[in-house]
Amino acid sequence: MRKNRILVTGGAGFLGSHLCDRLLRDGNDVVCLDNLFTGSKDNIRHLLGNPYFEFIRHDITLPIFVECDQIYNLACPASPKWYQKDPIFTFKTSVYGAMNCLGLAKRTGARVLQASTSEIYGDPEIHPQPESYRGCVNTIGIRSCYDEGKRAAETLFFDYHRMHGVDVKVMRIFNTYGPCMDIDDGRVISNFIIQALKGEDITIYGDGLQTRSFCYVDDLIEGMVRLMNSRDGFTGPVNVGNPCEFTIKELAERVIKLTGSSSRLVYRDLPEDDPRQRRPDITLAQKELDWAPTVMLEEGLKRTIAYFEQVL
Ligand code: NAD
Ligand code: UDP
């Protein structure tokens, strides 16, 4: 007897495929929904023969009916390179996708978790960022399709909760990395590792003094599962991320050291609206979920480098 039937939208992506693995290991029945925009069947190939795993190729901007007890809504490209390719579709994915998941949760009585993001804080003037901070987001820039789409999705989650009593959980995910990131993903850690392993120039955007706080994927998935199974009435939003903060230049230097690469650092234009600093305040996650990250950057980078060494 399986524990729960769980729908994971975006289940063939980076985080989604790790989540599917984890939920199956925990004895659940998993339905993975994905349109394969940035995700890949390769990420879930090892699960396709598992009788407790099903894959549905579907676009979450369109309604779907699946019997389920829990929904994790992860469908949305997360890398700036990909979410800016078709910004209108990114916005639709966030907003219609949230509405379709919430409608399904309303009909089935399922609990639903939204993969929100630190991007809802925009280019923050408060540091580190607590959940109470309302953010500094450009409504009309090249990142807005993602940032404002995710903000609107949060609004929908709380309106469905207040109006229809839908059981919601909102998680604000800070930069997460690890094995199974796509070679073409374009986010900083996979870019730097691939460039270092190939001996190519390492592309730093801007002066490299902007900061990010990087969370290893296993820690993030643990936080996500804890939030889904947290006490009734706890909705979040809750920050989940690793509060150790690094400049992008420090990150590049670490990757060079750990790979033993001879790559050089080269500087490129900083993309518009690139946030200057980012670090989660995780007090709430510690209190409500008894969660804190356990894999620090050095160890996480080693594991991710080992993965890309195999793939390349
Ligand atoms: P990803 O791009 O690897 O995964 C996203 C998945 O969603 C892909 O499999 C993609 O094909 C699928 N998808 C996109 N649009 C869809 C649509 N319209 N219908 C169905 N499927 C669709 O990115 P990820 O890093 O795994 O991110 C997963 C979720 O977590 C996203 O919602 C993202 O916004 C959120 N998030 C991730 C991070 C991070 O650092 N990894 C940070 C903040 C938030
Ligand atoms: N970045 C970089 N070189 C790259 C990719 C990204 O210097 O090859 C920078 C980017 O400008 C940003 C930071 O690294 O300041 C994190 O970028 P990423 O796309 O990973 O995530 P986000 O900006 O959404 O946090």
Give your account of this protein's structure.
The chain is of the alpha/beta class. It has 9 helices and 13 strands. Helix 1 crosses helix 6 (217-228). Bound molecules: nicotinamide-adenine-dinucleotide (NAD) and uridine-5'-diphosphate. Nicotinamide-adenine-dinucleotide binds at residues 9-10, 12-16, 34-39, 59-61, 74-78, 93, 97, 115, 117, 173, 175-176.
In short:
This protein is α/β, with parallel strands linked by helices. Helix content is 37%, strand content 17%.
- Counting copies of identical and different chains, the oligomeric state is single chain
SS class: alpha/beta
Query: Which stretches are poorly predicted, pLDDT < 50 over at least 5 residues?
Result: none
What helical percentage do the residues reach? 25-40%
Percent strand: 15-25%
The residue-averaged pLDDT reads: 98
* Rg on CA atoms, Å: 19 Å
What does the largest sheet look like?
7 strands, parallel
Strand order of the largest sheet: 3-2-1-4-5-6-11
How far apart lie the N and C ends? 40 Å
Order of helix and strand elements from N to C terminus: EHEEEHHEHEEHEEEHEEHEHH
Count up the helices.
Answer: 9
User: What is the molecular shape?
Assistant: globular
Number of strands: 13
| Ligand set | nicotinamide-adenine-dinucleotide, uridine-5'-diphosphate
